Amino acid sequence: MATLATATEKKAQMSADEKPERKPQRGRVDDRFKIFCGTANEPLCDEVCTFLGLTRGQALVTRFSDGEAYVQIQENVRGADVFVVQPTCHSVDQHLMELLLMIDALKRASARRITAVLPYYGYARQDRKVQPRVPITAKLVADLLTAAGVDRVLALDLHAGQIQGFFNIPVDHLFAAPVIIDYLGKKDLHDPVIVSPDAGGVERARAIAKRLKASLAIIDKRREGPNQAVAMHLIGDVHGQDAVVIDDMIDTAGTLVQAVEALAREGARRILACGVHAVLSGPAIDRIKSSPLEEVVVTNSIAVSDAKRTGRLTVLTVAPLLGEAIRRIHDEESVSTLFV
């Protein structure tokens, strides 16, 4: 990995013309290469399987009347290299438990290697103690996955990069920046400026701004509590420019709307937003609809229901990115070269 100052920039600096071509693979005849999924995002898993030319592994995932989860792997996995695609999104606890049970079932069925593919890592925001007597839940989840028997983790845009260090097993950390950059590069943006909604996202925004040859602005924000944010003022110039707010996730959209209001006050010409993970909980959709946002770009790392798909929401697929990474892991090839 490169130095901390350049790692994200190297990963983000990849246009559609430069990145490795990710065409669907020919059908593979390999009884020891299998992909399973829980109920969190079955369409994404099916897209990954289509990209790889595989058929999704057969597994029964259901619940007893009291809500207790039940998993049964319904095909032979002895000696197989198995990948379980399961974002731990809403309902977080249910989907996390499904993932743990699937890993345990696969381990007891003598799978050779089990890789947990986490397009979205739940509890990632609880990565440190910010108050007395609180848990570090992101670390606890890492311990649970390891104890269940996972051999490797493939994650997409972790909220905090240091979560990789919570595991004592290999972690491949992918970034959706190339997918977003490719999309924004095809937009007719006038004098674009990339905006970080807080200080923590500056490195991500700077890397994307550099690739798009855009300027950079930062929102000075203070958080008053969980899911609450107040934008203070803007660092940088957006007057008469097309502003694109970049964040790793959009949850209640409180941070996003505060940033958008600040940009509108400063005279931005158009305002767009990009977030990798479309959590979209609570009042998120209503806030987006009532804001000056022209478009909100997200990925399908989390399944977006039809009820949330407003005219302003554009969903990009990360299936080719995940599929290529899965293929490389199975074939023992470099994953880092996806971003070089």
Please give a quick description of this structure.
This protein is an alpha/beta fold and 340 residues long. The protein has helices at residues 7-12, 42-52, 92-108, 137-148, 177-185, 202-212, 254-265, 284-289, 319-330; strands at 33-37, 59-63, 69-73, 81-85, 113-118, 152-156, 171-174, 193-196, 215-225, 228-235, 242-250, 270-278, 295-299, 313-316. It has a seven-stranded mixed beta sheet with strand order 10-9-8-11-12-13-14, with helices on both faces. It has a five-stranded parallel beta sheet with strand order 1-4-5-6-7, sandwiched between helices.
Describe the structure.
By secondary structure, the protein is of the alpha/beta class. It has helices spanning about 5-10, 40-50, 90-110, 135-150, 175-185, 200-210, 255-265, 285-290, 320-330, and strands spanning about 35, 60-65, 70-75, 80-85, 115-120, 150-155, 170-175, 195, 215-225, 230-235, 240-250, 270-280, 295-300, 315. The strands form three sheets. The protein has a seven-stranded mixed sheet with strand order 10-9-8-11-12-13-14, sandwiched between helices. The longest helix is centred in the N-terminal third of the chain and has 17 residues, at about 90-110. It starts with 6 loop residues before the first helix and ends in a 10-residue tail after the last helix.
- Average pLDDT confidence is 90
Largest sheet: number of strands, sense, barrel closure: 7 strands, mixed
Strand content: 25-35%
**Roughly how much helix do the residues carry, as a percent range?**
25-40%
- In DSSP terms (H or I, runs of 4 or more residues), the helix count works out at 9
Shape: globular
Number of strands: 14
